[in-house]
Design goal:
single chain, alpha/beta, Rossmann fold, 3-stranded antiparallel beta sheet
């Protein structure tokens, strides 16, 4: 629960493992309320109160081992934000994804081992990872080994759906109108049957939090028959994302622990 800032702890307030500050570094102790977050600059400061029984938190090495072996979701996002708070949610999600990337640099390779679990569809739209996005090189090779054709998205106009051009690893790329590496204009334009998309966060009902540019949502709307699959760290899963009218849900998500089809929205 979120309560106004005070020095008082309350029963059941994040009184669990999920309520503990997942501090990095050598083993730090948690001894009560000590987590604070400002949800919006124009709203009062709220403190997240965590009062677990004192015990040792895992150090960085232990966290990395847990993420690699069990896909543990460290630092889950617990705030119930409205659509107007998406900027704050994106900031938290970027920080978490960056942390997961540092803890488990081999996650992309393990995710590629689950390629056979993906739905059928050809061509397959992949992407060139930027920043802490889960790298798609290993999965791209695994898809090629299945005999599938690959393509990459291309932004020609910032407010229009993306197009897709056929591509294979090693072929030259140039920056498109969004500044993202894309195939050259001489590459064949194709219509993907399956689109793999990066994301900042996802939920089990197909909710996807993107960077905010709307490129994939516009493209999903233009290609309603395409299968939409997120590619992410398991730790990027959150409870329920705020969904707006223009947001289009995914059919599933592939992570380092396997493929999960989206559940129906209750």
């Amino acid at each position: 629960m979120l309560r106004p800032t005070s020095k008082t702890t309350f029963p059941r307030d994040l009184n669990s493992l999920d309520g503990i500050c997942p501090c990095l570094g050598s083993r730090a102790r948690a001894h009560g309320a000590h987590l604070a977050t400002q949800v919006r600059e124009d709203l009062p400061l709220f403190t997240v109160l965590a009062a677990p029984p004192p015990f040792l938190l895992p150090g960085a090495d232990d966290e990395a081992r847990l993420v690699r072996t069990q896909g543990v979701r460290l630092g889950r996002l617990h705030l119930s934000l409205t659509p107007h708070d998406k900027a704050g949610l994106r900031a938290e999600a970027r920080a978490l994804r960056k942390r997961l990337a540092g803890l488990d640099p081999e996650a992309a390779g393990r995710a590629a081992e689950h390629v056979s679990a993906l739905p059928s569809g050809d061509p397959v739209a992949v992407y060139r990872a930027i920043g802490s996005e889960l790298d798609m090189d290993a999965l791209s090779l695994a898809l090629l080994a299945q005999g599938r054709t690959l393509c990459l998205p291309v932004v020609l106009e910032r407010d229009a759906p993306m197009i897709f051009r056929r591509w294979s690893p090693g072929e030259p790329l140039e920056l498109d109108q969004a500044g993202v590496p894309a195939p050259l204009p001489l590459a064949e334009t194709v219509v993907p049957e399956l689109i793999l998309t990066p994301l900042l966060a996802f939920d089990l009902h197909g909710g996807r939090l993107g960077q905010g540019g709307g490129y994939y949502d516009r493209t999903f709307a233009a290609l309603p028959e395409a299968i939409r699959i997120g590619f992410a760290y398991a730790g990027q899963q959150v409870a329920d994302l705020p969904i707006e009218a223009h947001d289009i849900r995914l059919h599933g998500v592939l992570t380092e622990v396997g493929y999960t089809a989206a559940r129906k929205v209750p």
